[in-house]
């Protein structure tokens, strides 16, 4: 006679997908609303060691885009879609999370240059929020994380194309 209680396997539910998606949508709407109602100063806000805000944003978004490319490749390895590297180093998961955090932080200064850029920025932050809330849950449908990750990548690609690529094409690379 055994005292072991059989466990019932639970199936991932599409209903559970609503929470991270709703929170992500709320973040996107909040950022969009703020962008619409705030009074812009019309002056450089953040420059650090760059000559102006536009140069700062072009470079930080380019670095963020490179980090997101690492995010996609490392996620594919973590989830077994790629076999490189053959054996995953112990720090690989930490590097994946750190690259995502840094990419997020580098894109915080949203450039409202165009409607497309602004909307892509709102979508990016909403999708990123939904991705972070979804990444560790095993109770969500299997399709959710790859779809949200792909959309997050696409949103940042649009951000890069409408800011950094535009800047480098129209202003050129800064000369030392």
SSE topology:
Blueprint: H1 18-37, H2 53-78, H3 92-106, H4 115-134, H5 144-162, H6 164-170
Descriptive keywords:
176 residues; mainly alpha; globular
By DSSP (H or I, 4+ residues per run), the number of helices equals: 6
Number of strands: 0
Q: Report Rg.
A: 20 Å
Q: Helicity level, as a percent range?
A: 55-70%
User: By helix and strand content, what is the structural category?
Assistant: mainly alpha
Mean pLDDT: 85
Low-confidence stretches: none
Order of helices and strands: HHHHHH
Q: Into which percentage range does the β-strand content fall?
A: under 5%
Distance between the ends:
80 Å
Please give a structural write-up.
This protein is mainly alpha-helical and 176 residues long. It has a domain at 55-170. It is 61% helix and 0% strand. The protein contains 6 helices and no strands. The protein has helices at 18-37, 53-78, 92-106, 115-134, 144-162, 164-170. The longest helix is centred in the middle third of the chain and has 26 residues, at 53-78. The radius of gyration is 20 Å and the shape is globular.
Summarize the structure.
With 176 residues, the chain is mostly helical.
């Amino acid at each position: 006679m055994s005292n072991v209680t059989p466990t019932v396997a639970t199936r991932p539910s599409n209903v559970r997908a609503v929470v991270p998606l709703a929170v992500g949508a709320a973040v996107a709407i909040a950022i969009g609303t703020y962008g619409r109602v705030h009074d812009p100063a019309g002056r450089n806000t953040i420059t650090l060691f760059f000559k102006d805000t536009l140069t700062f944003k072009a470079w930080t978004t380019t670095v963020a885009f490179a980090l997101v490319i690492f995010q996609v490749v490392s996620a594919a390895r973590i989830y077994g879609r790629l076999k490189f590297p053959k054996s995953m180093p112990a720090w690989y998961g930490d590097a994946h999370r750190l690259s995502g955090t840094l990419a997020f932080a580098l894109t915080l200064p949203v450039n409202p240059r165009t409607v497309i850029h602004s909307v892509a920025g709102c979508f990016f932050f909403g999708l990123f929020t939904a991705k972070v809330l979804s990444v560790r849950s095993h109770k969500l449908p299997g399709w959710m994380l790859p779809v949200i990750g792909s959309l997050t990548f696409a949103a940042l690609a649009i951000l890069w194309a409408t800011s950094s690529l535009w800047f480098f094409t129209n202003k050129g690379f800064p000369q030392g």
